[in-house]
Amino acid sequence: MDFSWLSDPFYLSYLWEGFVNTLWLLLVSAVGGLLLAVLVALARLRGPRPLAWLVWAFTTVMRGTPLLVQLFFFYYGVGRLMEGVPGIQETFMWPLLRDPFFFAALTFILSVGAYSGEVIRGAMKSVPRGEREAGRAFGLSGFQVLTRLWLPRAIQLCLPTLTGEMILLLKSIPLVSTIALMDLLQAANIIRDETFLVYEPLLLIAGIYLATTVVLTVVLRFVELNFPGMQPTQRRWLPIR
Amino acid sequence: MTSSLQHAFRSHSSTAPAVVATQLIKHFGELEVLKGISLEVPEGTVTSIIGASGSGKSTLLRCMNLLERPDRGELAIADEAIRFDRNPQGDIIGLDRRQLQRLRAKVTMVFQQFNLWPHLTVLGNVIEAPMRVKKLSRKQATALGEHYLERVGMADRRDAYPAFLSGGQQQRVAIARALAMEPRLLLFDEPTSALDPERVNEVLGVIRGLADEGRTMLLVTHEMHFAREVSDQLVYLDQGHIACSGTPKDVFEDPRCRQFMAPAA
């Protein structure tokens, strides 16, 4: 095992950039994706029929095609297509439309929106009807029932599943190394190409992913345990019996 | 207050009825659940709706705050007629949502399954609607909430979550939640039917206390003896019709009514 390359500041800066990009992508995709997921769930449960159908088609396509294919589709397909739009190169949008980060984030947001949208839809359906009914019976508006009563309860119910979705998202991010975005895998590939060491860089980034996953799990478990109204029997740090 | 004083108080405070329903008809698909029910709950009185399962009691009660929308008929809550949208045949097809929300703040409900909000504390449950619907400040709502939690004997559990309470305690919190809106009319939908037998009395005790205060209440119950004790008016529902109604004395002494109630009583 040869880790002497770790003392090279160039490699360290690649790794750092890759790590920061990975975390940014995770954050942006998680926040944007979960917001989209709520809209997806709502459209399917409460939207007008044509919208519900459209959203159903969207989730089916996003869940039915490989993430890598989607990434290529948006970056090479849509990205190149936009290039041909006359005048677009002069707009403020142009730098964004050339940025692999933008297309990576877009792809992941849509993907999380589709997968987590179904999770949230299921959770919303399993909130007892009477809780919403009580809200309506006391004069709360539909929007208040949704934001104060229905969604908080639904998210409480599906938080463990959403934690899983976020971990899956983290480990989908290396796919972006294929569209020339500097992430951890890209950094490892560069190090491999220049030092002819295959395992050491991979082992290092595997360790970084594992550590990030552990931190993510602990943070989300903390949120879960501190969710208002938890029953005492469920208050166990490790979800193991 | 002695009971004669209360009766004096009640009869004086009787102004316009808290709710007036006229010829309510409600279908669930092919099934006609309410077949033209007219009902009036005078201010300061207690009315109980009794009857067998499936007679339409709960549906009738749920029409009073429009959790169920009747298909035909008229409804006035707190002197205000509900503005229904109707098709040319007179069938109700919609209503004014703003008016509905405003009136629902005046008619609150206690449910069979309590329906507390599990992610809010006891106090949080009680102050939610006063804050969001009546737009009280948190301070005002909390003062109100504490007062009514005291009233139902749950003030010491104000920071607990519903999952940590017994059924009887949850139902008492639900009653405090309904009281905190200071409604013109309180609706009770079989408030003791989901309770263990030993918990029933603590809830009935609270409701009896409210009746003695002269609160206007409409309740659906299977507790015949309780209904007879606390009610000013009894309504016996049979297959979507009012089979008999009147004071408890009238209803229980009328041979025809007794015949109806025989299987239930």
TrEMBL record, chain A:
PROSITE patterns, A to Z: ABC_TM1
Residue ranges of domain ABC transmembrane type-1 in the record: 19-220
InterPro entries: AA_ABC_transptr_permease_3TM, ArtM/GltK/GlnP/TcyL/YhdX-like, MetI-like, MetI-like_sf
Transmembrane regions listed in the UniProt entry: 20-42, 54-76, 101-120, 202-223
Keyword Nucleotide-binding: no
Organism this protein belongs to: Halomonas llamarensis
NCBIfam families assigned: HEQRo_perm_3TM
Membrane-related topology note: Multi-pass membrane protein
Highest taxon of source: Bacteria
Record localization: Cell inner membrane; Cell membrane
Similarity comment: family membership: Belongs to the binding-protein-dependent transport system permease family. HisMQ subfamily.
Matching SUPFAM superfamilies: MetI-like (SSF161098)
Pfam family, one: BPD_transp_1
Name of protein: Arginine ABC transporter permease protein ArtM
Keywords: Amino-acid transport, Cell inner membrane, Cell membrane, Membrane, Transmembrane, Transmembrane helix, Transport
Primary localization class, coarse: membrane
Automatic annotation (TrEMBL), chain B:
SUPFAM superfamilies: P-loop containing nucleoside triphosphate hydrolases
CDD domains in the cross-refs: ABC_HisP_GlnQ
Subcellular location: Cell inner membrane
Principal place of residence: membrane
Family (UniProt): Belongs to the ABC transporter superfamily.
Domain ABC transporter, residue spans: 19-264
GO terms of molecular function: ATP binding
Keywords associated with the record: ATP-binding, Cell membrane, Membrane, Nucleotide-binding, Transport
Organism: Halomonas llamarensis
Membrane topology listed for this record: Peripheral membrane protein
Database matches in InterPro entries: AAA+_ATPase (IPR003593), ABC_ATPase_HisP-typ (IPR030679), ABC_transporter-like_ATP-bd (IPR003439), ABC_transporter-like_CS (IPR017871), MetN_ABC_transporter-like (IPR050086), P-loop_NTPase (IPR027417)
The protein's name: Amino acid ABC transporter ATP-binding protein
